[in-house]
Structures are given as structure tokens and as C-alpha cells.
Design a protein that fits this description.
Arc Repressor Mutant, subunit A; mainly alpha; 2 domains; 190 residues
Length: 190
Amino acid sequence: MTSRFPADRRREVLAAARRLVAERGFEETTVEAIAAATRTSKATLYRQWGDKASLVVDAVSAGSGIAIGTIDTGTLPGDLHAVADMLAERASVNVPLVLGIARAGQDDPALLGALSARLLPEVAALRAVVVRAVGRGELVAEPPAARWLQHLFAGAVLTPSLTGGPGRVPGAADLRDYVDAVVLPALGVR
């Protein structure tokens, strides 16, 4: 993206893309619709992002509010509870977006690849929580379940909406209970 595109316009475009994908899904969201919603030309959007997948991935990433790498409470339970709080705080925004692009990603390897690349730093940060716990002596070694942490959290965040209906997301208390009942025991913490 070029620096000549004003930051406030960029934020407006990314917010519109997030809103449209959450409402319509990835397939039904068009660059034309994003352009119309922001009174921006399609040519400008294509010049800035190249394609719809790049625009949507940038929008999802920029608006996720997830920054696991900023978490370090000094204890494994504290860090995982902070992750739970962060995920719960943004679930009402992020879950519809994730569900809105999940199906499309199965049919669009470029979209899935771009999204996965953007998520890798958060996955690494989640793994770093366990590595720090090993370094502090809270765990004797990195447990096998550590490589599945992102799946454990994704399941806990997405399942309520998938089984309870659209708009159902877990609260912080639910995710903290989940950390205590499932995640910590999976990591060998009793």
C-alpha cells in the first residue's frame, strides 16, 4: 500500500470491509460495494490492495484487536486468562468476520494463505506464553498440547456461534472457565 493513501481513509475502507464481510460473507462482499460504502473508486482500492482477498485480510487483521504478544502477566494461568479476556472482548466483532470468510477460504487457497500468514504472529505469541512458562519453571518442558493451543482457543471462541446460533459468543468468564477446565489441564497444570 502506498503512503499517499491517507490513514483516515484507510481506516474507513478497512472498517467498511470488515462490516460488509461480517454482514454478507466474503463471497458476497465486492470491491464495488466497499468502494460505494466509502465513496472511493474501485481503481483506488485495487491500486492500494491489489485484490479483494488482500483488502479483506488487511481489514480483518487491522481490526481484530488481538495482540497476544503484548501479554505477559508473569504466570501461565495469568497469561492464558489474559488471552481469554482479549478474545472475549473482541469476539462479537471477530467471530462474524471469521465465519464470514471461513467458507470462502476453503475454496480460495490464496485467501486462506494470506489470512494464515497474518495469523502466524498471534499463533507464535500464544506458543511463546508456554515457552515463558517453561523458562519460569511452571512447566518442566513444553507439553505436546502446546502445539494445539490455537485450535483449543479457536474452538472455544467459535463453537457458541456455530451451535447456539449467529451472534452467540463466549464471555470472558466462560473463556476463563475453559482455560481452567481444559487448557491448563491439557498443558499438564492441575
